Amino acid sequence: MLRDITLGQYYQTESVIHRLDARVKLAGTLIFIVSLFFFKNYWGYLVAALFLAGVIKLSRVPFKFMVKGMKAIVFLVIITVLFSLFLTPGEALVSLGKLTITKEGLNTAITTTIRLSMLIIGSSIMTLTTTPNNLTDAMEKSMRPLKKLHVPVHEIAMMMSIALRFIPILLEETDKIMKAQIARGADFESGNLLKRAKAMVPLLVPLFISAFRRANDLAMAMEARCYRGGDGRTKMKPLIYQKRDHLAYVCLLVYFVAAVVIGRLHF
Amino acid sequence: MAIELEHVNFIYGEDTPLAVKALDDVNLMIPDGQFIGIIGHTGSGKSTLVQHLNGLMKATSGDIRYNGESIYGKDFEMRKLRSKVGLVFQYPEHQLFEIDVFSDVCFGPKNLGLSKEEVEERAKDALQKVGIPETMYYQSPFELSGGQKRRVAIAGVLAMQPDVLILDEPTAGLDPKGRDEILQQIKTLQTETGLTILLVSHSMDDVAEYVDRIIVMNAGKVMFDDVPKSVFAHVKELEEVGLAAPQVTYVMQELRKRGFEVGEDATTVEEAAKAILRCLKA
Ligand SMILES: Nc1ncnc2c1ncn2[C@@H]1O[C@H](COP(=O)(O)OP(=O)(O)O)[C@@H](O)[C@H]1O
Ligand SMILES: [Mg+2]
């Protein structure tokens, strides 16, 4: 049931993209997303799509697997499209009673759909090819300058990695408790809103209790291993740039310049 | 009221690189009134198997019939099946949520849409069967000991008055005393009510004394399905898959090897004691 959510999940396989330094992937994702907002024509999106396709191919994550995790987001995309389709003022194309579709609206709807789906695919490539641990390590290291401003960088990174680590565990737990209550005749699927909200109690109470129990155990285990924050803490697998990472940065730069230039040309 | 499984297969994460075949061509017939032990090493597919029996999981292929009717049929009422086949999950105390013991046990029968009196009567009856005294009815379930919590959780399923009761590792994490108490209570329940019981465990010693039949699972397949005595005769094969016959079986084997005529029938400590005494007197 809940296990089918693959958003933010890591996909284990051997590929160039998997081996890249997580900082490269983090920067790459940002660059890619930013580039999407520079385009003024559809050629830019074509370049971005080709780049994305190349990266997907290199990552060896089956496209089918990637799309499966996006089902949850389709709803969001549809809502956004509907809003921009009907609520953008401009030159009318079609009228359906009170609602009118404008030329500008159609244009915005198309670009929004393309942007949103590329944005989601782009960021899911990062999470699919990077373990949560590596990702938070990369964030910690990239944000280190902020430490001078007394931002608790290490603590934020640690909290993030714990949160990420707990998502699958809590999903599994939810699944288990849900099944156990269904076995006792609970019904999570029918009835009106109030009834459904009430039906959540037998699920949420045990879930919270279990989350607290786990948090407690984890805190105890960390203390037992003398965890006392980030100061002086060394890494088992420190992030060090390799040749391929520098190469990847160059590729990213080339992509960015090329895509933005092409995307802003007037034909 | 039999449950029949025909060529049941189940794969976790089908179509992904992480696919695991958890059930592999399982064929079983579970008649009325039997006390069955399902034994297997961790990861052998026991929990997956029992969740198929009340329709919580749907087989990837194959068919399951309840009273001759396929549970995957269009008109089959899954809710009815779930009220008739009660499943107690591993660590069932993790599902407790109500403010007191009594209300928690009422949850199941209440979901069946019974009257208030009927619900309370069933809850009382169930709590009595698992040996929870009335003085505890209005305590918070979270204040009880581990063994007590578990018994309350079992009562929560019993209160639905199922025809088949499935317990997934009901003794996991309990001390020996708590373990024996729970097992003894389950046995009493079975003899008194004639309920069909499936007891899942990874330990032969747990079930040998109580059950009529043992199903041994290994890597998703049914490896043996027979009366305890015949299953224990395969000591070698059992050991190969990380299981063991009950300890008395080894004692008796060793005694036979050393020339004591103790016979081959004893599978429980009690029977073994009798056989040894008989042999010594003769
Ligand atoms: N939710 C799940 N997702 C993927 N694989 C699972 C899941 N649950 C169990 N498995 C796998 O299925 C197999 C059987 O598991 P299970 O039925 O829980 O065994 P048992 O109860 O005998 O220990 C194991 O290999 C296990 O790793
Ligand atoms: Mg199990």
Your description of this structure?
Chain A is mainly alpha-helical. Chain A has eleven helices and two strands; from the N terminus they run H-H-H-H-H-E-E-H-H-H-H-H-H. Helices cover 68% and strands 3% of the residues of chain A. In chain A, helix 2 runs antiparallel to helix 6. The radius of gyration of chain A is 23 Å and the shape is flat. By secondary structure, chain B is α/β, with parallel strands linked by helices. Chain B is built from eleven helices and ten strands. Chain B has helices at 46-53, 78-84, 101-111, 116-129, 146-158, 176-193, 204-208, 228-232, 235-240, 247-257, 269-281, and strands spanning 3-12, 20-30, 35-40, 61-66, 69-70, 85-88, 164-168, 196-201, 213-218, 221-226. In chain B, the strands form two sheets. In chain B, strands 6-7-8-3-9-10 form a six-stranded mixed sheet, with helices on both faces. Helices cover 39% and strands 22% of the residues of chain B. Classes of the chains: A mainly alpha (267), B alpha/beta (282). Bound molecules: adenosine-5'-diphosphate and magnesium ion (MG). Magnesium ion binds next to helix 1 of chain B. The site of magnesium ion has 4 residues of chain B, from helix 1.
The average pLDDT value of chain A, as a whole number, equals: 88
Characterize the biggest β-sheet of chain A.
2 strands, antiparallel
DSSP, total strands of chain A? 2
**Overall geometric form of chain A:** flat
Which class do the helix and strand fractions of chain B yield? alpha/beta
CATH architecture classification of the largest domain in chain B: 3-Layer(aba) Sandwich
Unreliable residue stretches of chain A: none
Please report the two chains with the greatest interface, counting residues with C-beta closer than 8 angstroms to the partner's C-beta. A-B, 23 and 28 residues
